[in-house]
Amino acid sequence: MEEAGMKNNFTLHIFKSSEALVATLSDAIISVLKSAIEQRGHAFIALSGGSTPKKLFESLSGADLEWNKVIITLVDERWVSPNSAESNENLIKNTLLQNNASFANFIPLKNSALEAQDGVLITANRLQEIDKLDIVVLGMGGDGHTASFFPHAKGLENALTTKELCCATEATVAPYSRITLSRNFLLSAKHLFLHIEGEQKRNVFDLACGSSDELEIPIIAMMQQTQPKLEVYYA
């Protein structure tokens, strides 16, 4: 484990293989969900898309858990059809919401509005069901983005400062408008995990650790607080 300076706060867990990382992170997630269910009768978790978490989702899908008491939502979503290969909702349904986890409840971010900006209020109303996020699992892109906080994206400053639950953003290099949970909502979680794999992403993360420019490297925006401290799982 390792902690970084400046204003950035995190704990780094390093694994020799993706399989070891997935096994440990799965156990951590299941433990938190079970504890939340025991304490409140339900648990809330927000998950990220991309190719990195597929093995994690498949592992979680077989876990012995009262999945009917778990409510799952997304950290962010492209404004595309839920059936699209580009949809995070589609990823979740085809990897996590299988096997034992098929009994979990899912709150989608995408709705019938034509554009993400038009659909923010509808999604925010859906998210009102979440009284407290127990877990957020973030990913990170090669440009240092997390959630839909892209470097210098349209709507980025609002996403990092708004008290609303979610908002629309539009990356300068991505083809779709997006909806994302706000930083404020993400940081309300009891546990904040970052799952990254590969040398390139480690290099980007190390660069972020030595910087305070969250508009240039947005993952920094998730390391400025002491609670919840960012727990980084890297292989």
TL;DR?
The protein is of the alpha/beta class and 235 residues long.
Could you characterize what this model shows?
- The structure is a single chain.
- With 235 residues, this protein is α/β, with parallel strands linked by helices.
- The protein has a single domain, classed as 3-Layer(aba) Sandwich (Rossmann fold).
- 31% of the residues lie in helices and 20% in strands.
- It is built from seven helices and ten strands.
- The protein has helices at residues 18-40, 54-61, 88-95, 116-127, 156-161, 183-186, 199-209; strands at 10-14, 43-47, 70-74, 76-78, 105-107, 135-138, 166-170, 177-181, 191-196, 230-234.
- The strands form two sheets. Strands 1-10-9-6-2-3-5 form a seven-stranded parallel sheet, with helices on one face.
- Helix 7 links the parallel strand 9 (191-196) and strand 10.
- Helix 1 packs across helix 2.
- The radius of gyration is 16 Å and the shape is globular.
- The two termini are 13 Å apart.
Keywords, please?
three-stranded antiparallel β-sheet, Rossmann fold, 10 strands, 31% helix, single chain, globular
Beta content: 15-25%
| Cα-atom radius of gyration | 16 Å
State the end-to-end distance.
13 Å
Would you tell me the structural class of the helices and strands? alpha/beta
The strand count comes to: 10
Largest β sheet strand count, sense and barrel closure: 7 strands, parallel
